[in-house]
Batch of 3 targets.
Target 1
Amino acid sequence: MNFDLRPIFLVIGLLLATLGCSMLLPAIVDLLADNDDWRVFAASGILTILIGAGLYGGARGTTQHLGTKQAFIMTVGTWVILALFGALPYYWSGIVPTFTDAVFESLSGLTTTGATVITGLDFAPPGVLFWRGIQQWLGGLGIIVMAVAVLPMLQIGGMQLFKIEAFETAEKIMPRATQISGSLTLVFLFFTALCAAAYLAAGMAVDDAVIHAMTTVATGGFSTKDASFAHFDSFAIQLVSVAFMVLGSIPFILYVQAVRGQSIALWKDSQVRVFLGLLSILVIIAWLIYPGGEVQSEKILSSEGFKYALFNVTSIMTGTGYASTDYSAWGSTSSMFFFMIMFIGGCAGSTSCGIKIFRFQVLYETLKQHIKSIFYPNGVFVMRFNSRVLDDNVSTAVMSFLFLYVAIFFIVASLLSITGLDFITALSAAGSAISNVGPGVGDRIGPAGTYKELGDGAKWIIMAAMLIGRLELFTVLVLFVPRFWRS
């Protein structure tokens, strides 16, 4: 290893200090609520700020640009270190019994997975609930910036399709990311404030509205209630959630362009059109299979079925993970349906997770080209995405990503089975973790359950899958290739 680590320490130190400052907000909330946990958040925040400031101060002044290898290490290192420090309030407050559970909750928050090991949320301290919301909000914003500034440069899984013109080399990532992240943050803040106001208007209490706004726009899924959105029993609240889950699943750079007068870009993007079209079709399918997992003509026009289908399909497809009912109880057909859609995800450059729509579009174009070549061997067929010609290297990157995605899913499911989980739980936990959805299917980790009762071994495997899935597979796995560390 012959490259300078100081640029990595500089970035991680700055982000750690930011995380520490954000811990002071729950401290204030607990102090106002006369809850002694304010000391926990204050101590965690001060410690995190001091370590972050130390890293930043020690690396400040370096003129070394951020190279490709450093970008890989920085991306993974940031998520791991922030998750570890973010676990301190959970552990020190005693809301979870072990450090494993604390790290699980923290990483689930930052990766916007939404899988939880905490029960009794209805009576949990306000600071803890607020901290869970802050973590998902910060994680969602971080994913957007990473998808715009880092992944296209590293050509991860076809993300080079979304390279912004000013990003010509990896060395330009940091200065350009600093400029564009400001616009993305303002849009993210605006949507969060708008979502909170809409929740308030729909009948939520102020604290619930603020926390759910943060986790909705981030498509994270952490709720302040054990029953998630079933607790509120309000279709108006669910409609607000659906609207902002969809907004969070659309490329945020398109919103920035719209603000700058290029509103047509939002409607011209084929990813957005395919995403909205597919979501509509899946909602109708879920409506048809409600209830009992069988098509029943007399239930097709059930308003209750439509409400459940609209909310839960949007939540699972976007990787948010809220639930308004236990859809696992609809029957085996429903369980299979929700298990399959958890892999889809939203658009690239959004807070959503999963495989993402553009990769299915590239897969379709690749298959279409191959089929045409079979029937017309001498023909010349050009693949296109958003009216632009698709390079073969993009198609190859997407195919490699899809193959690796499936392979990792089965490896994680097999490892979870070895820890003693039953087949359904292992399979759905693997899919939910790598797709960063949160709830799986079945009685244990379904929409009505939590991950609390799983063993520590299973939790660490799931945590690894969360991180790998959130950082688009290759970003993490490349660090385990010996050649990466050679000059």
Note: The longest helix spans residues 173-202.
Target 2
Amino acid sequence: MNQKAIYAGTFDPMTLGHLDVVERAAKIFPELVVAVVAETGKNVLFSQKERVDLVKKSVKGLTNVKVTLFDGLLVEYARAQGAGVLIRGLRAFSDFEYEFQMALTNRRLAPDIETLFLMPKQDYSFLSSTNVKQVASLGGDVSEFVPPAVLAALTRKLKR
């Protein structure tokens, strides 16, 4: 089995659910790349650089985790990085259909790369970056949902 895995996402912003998945994957694999998607097709709050910086600050204590920016097809990026596993987080059953379709598509494109689904702690299973941004933009307290660096960045970005 390949010893390197990739956990890719928009991370706009990174939540404690994301961080929990990173920590779980980092225990399984000696090398984990957290790949921040450059062009998301989504309306993002944070720039590419800001998202990479926030993820780096959030995972700084994990010595076997590297954070990169990537663009393009994930399976091609995984091959270029020498990774044999893609990590995907599943929060709730509602995530399953999309993630299942993506995993099957990736398997067809790259049969040599496996997809491993990890669930965050139950405490974080409801979290989404979209909900965190919405609550924060309306002045709600999101300190229980995001790492400290992300909380500070949200506060600065959404200052009214």
Note: The mean pLDDT is 92.
Target 3
Amino acid sequence: MKIKFCGAARTVTGSQHLLELNGKKVLLDCGLYQGKREKAYDINRNFLFDPKELDAVVLSHAHIDHSGNLPSLWKAGFRGDIYATPATRDLCAIMLQDSAHIQTRDIEFVNKRKKRNHEPLFKPLYGFEEVRNIMKLFKCMPYQKKFSVNGFGGNLQVTYYDAGHILGSAQVALDIKEGSKTFRFGFTGDIGRPHLPILRDPDHMGDVNFMISESTYGGRVHDKAIDMDSQLQKVLEESLARGGKIIVPAFSVGRTQEIVFSLSKLFAKGALPRIPIFVDSPLSTNVSDIFKLHHECFDSETSELITKGVDVFGFSNLTYIKDVEESKQLNYLKGLCVIISASGMCESGRIVHHLRNNIGSEKNTILIVGFQAPETLGRRLVEAKDTQGTFVRVLGEEHLVKAKIYVLNSFSAHADKEELIEYFGKFDKSKMEQVYLVHGDYDQQQALQSALTVHGYKDVSIPEKGSEVGI
């Protein structure tokens, strides 16, 4: 068997890992690369393999950096099966449509400036037609039920295990037969954290011989997930004292629902005044509806609240906004409010416009609650947190950062260094022949590589993009 690392190698976004077995090819994830627009545009248009030669895609979860380039596969000739959990399939149905819509709208906005400057224009990677066609290829598979991948003659069987990262997220265990050799191959997808709200904790997939593992926070330690509510309360109290708007870039899947859940608990116990809360994202609104359909993913606390009739994703001072004109009216709203909007890395969507309109006032707050990839606007905001006089580029224009910036890593849905070590500790290390670290900045991968080596794992490597290894 051969592995080719086609994305998220020594970086976080654009997860794509190609396995070749007995002359057949299966792709683990097909994510969009997110970063500077020109660079991302080029990377996402050019696969490191021929999509027409793919037999199947095994998808770990619906986040755009893992699923967002699937429509481009169709556009390039892929017609095989796409395997996913039912919740992942349902999320992809709306997230990929939203991705096509945002690309079209944002590129129109950027191209106005390019036309004025006589620069080459961008085109969307894909449109709604490609999204509709790729969705026809999905096959839904539940957790912990082994299935055979079509076209592999029984030589590739897959089992999904709950990853506890977002709704429907899965670790992937592949039971492989090649000639007379059989072995088990693991792919973590993105591993969640113990004690996150709403979702169940990650399962254990059982022992494996080889592993592709994420390493997003391989060298960092988060604040504990149980501190999420108290940390959010403190930030809001400090922000309310300044009297401005609180802008929260948040991924539509997972992070938005977690923040709403946390706010609902704070309001219920009277810890905060009931200021207006706006979730300004059609996608987030639709995702919250999908959450309500998949109780199989919920932890005991959330399930118990739902059984009691509690709307865990709604409360009296919360408004979900879909209409674009209503979104624009938030720019003229006076007084205290919280605006939660996507995208989580501030690269596209309504959040970019809210940042442009609010970043220049010292009364306002920008609250970062998720990972920010290098070269994204979100990362530049994090880097500006403790620096006076920083300018950031928003929709092609320079803006001085005056708003107060907070970063809460307790809301992270990625396991940190200690949690990853604990995760690996459940495996029999004598059976694990090789670990490949992906989906992490290089310094984080090196830190996790060192930690795993100290803990006795035999061979931990950090592949480069485009590199191939044989098993």
Note: The first strand starts at residue 2 and ends at 7.
